[in-house]
# Entry
Amino acid sequence: MLRFSDRCARCGLDYGSFNVGDGAAAFLILIVGAVVSLLAILVELRWEPPLVVHLILWLPLTLGLTVVLLRFAKGLLLALEFRNAAREGRIVKGD
Ligand SMILES: [Zn+2]
# Structure
């Protein structure tokens, strides 16, 4: 759905060596879910609108925030992986 290009257009950094996996989606599920849930609770407590109002408000907001923020979240995770030189865990056999 949302993929990195093969390499950086400016410096040629190979994006293929990074693997952010589903990390960005997992973070967004938690963050967007918390924000939307809080807003829905506040709206319900304050105005008590019919259920259809909640559907009209929160479904598009959730989808929109996720689609817009996924791009930034994946970029942020790739940048953090690069900056911290993060790699898969390895077992070192020392003696
Ligand atoms: Zn670059």
Summary: Residues 81 and 87 are 8 Å apart (CA to CA). The mean pLDDT is 90. The pocket of zinc ion is lined by residues 8, 10-11, 13 (CB under 6 Å). Residues 51-83 form the longest helix (33 residues).
